[in-house]
Amino acid sequence: MKNLLSMEHLTNRELISIILRAEEFERGEQPTLARSYNIANLFFEPSTRTSTSFEMAERKLGCTIIPFDANFSSALKGETMYDTVKTLEMIGLDAVVIRAKEDEYYNELLEGINVAVINAGDGAGQHPSQSLLDLYTIHKEFGQFEGLNVTIAGDISHSRVAKSNAIALRNLGVNVRYLCPPEWAGDFEAHHSWDGLIEDSDVVMLLRVQHERHAVNSGFSKESYHEQYGLTVERASKMKKNAIIMHPAPVNRDVEITSELVESERSRIFSQVRNGVYVRMAILETILKGRE
């Protein structure tokens, strides 16, 4: 495992290995890297959780973080992603964590680049580190994946989280269902009502409505969306006894989910954030050790 670009590239064995290593980090085990590595975080889209989580993971691993501000980089002068990353490689970096607006931006980095590349989100494509922390959260809760019912509800077609988790969860034997307005289904076969979904779901995974990816005059109404597709208190009351609520965040409160449910007993939304540090430690350690 020399890079992390897409969940399509990971085997179940690699997924489980990262989950188990994250579990060890949460228990307090120490990293086993042979030296301090130089890493830069290249975020060309806004981020709170992912960017700071990666930076915290890097610091806990003893890495040296080389500052990079996309708003003051040569990308604004038209420099290609390849030339930016190649430049950082020549300066002495060992790895880059990249979030970009373009789907599959990493394809231009597959040849000629010798630093490790970790995809922190590509457009509406993939978000593998988020998927892995979601898997870790589910594994902590249930101890296994086979036979679980996971309902992913929200902005499916624009969601890199939905795409990443669809691949991983199905490969692990999870029964994945999708819920969204008809126009947001994309290539997914989706339900358009909670009927028959809420009662047997082990996990209800909500997705942020990505207003920035919708047309300005799309006719979207927060109130009507919440009424039809949001997780309300009434719907949550019908969930199985041990079922949990997840959301990659940021949360549009009272749109995808009623605000009072965000920190309810069932919710693992903020636990996911904490879990993300351990998982990203495991990802980085695995990739960097693979290059030692």
Automatic annotation (TrEMBL):
It comes from Ureibacillus manganicus DSM 26584. Catalyzes the condensation of carbamoyl phosphate and aspartate to form carbamoyl aspartate and inorganic phosphate, the committed step in the de novo pyrimidine nucleotide biosynthesis pathway. Residues 2-139 form the Aspartate/ornithine carbamoyltransferase carbamoyl-P binding domain. This is Aspartate carbamoyltransferase. Pfam families: OTCace (PF00185), OTCace_N (PF02729). InterPro entries: Asp/Orn_carbamoyltranf_P-bd, Asp/Orn_carbamoylTrfase, Asp/Orn_carbamoylTrfase_sf, Asp_carbamoyltransf, Asp_carbamoyltransf_Asp/Orn-bd. L-aspartate binds at residues 77, 160, 208. Belongs to the aspartate/ornithine carbamoyltransferase superfamily. ATCase family. It catalyses: carbamoyl phosphate + L-aspartate = N-carbamoyl-L-aspartate + phosphate + H(+). Its EC number is 2.1.3.2. Pathway: Pyrimidine metabolism; UMP biosynthesis via de novo pathway; (S)-dihydroorotate from bicarbonate: step 2/3.
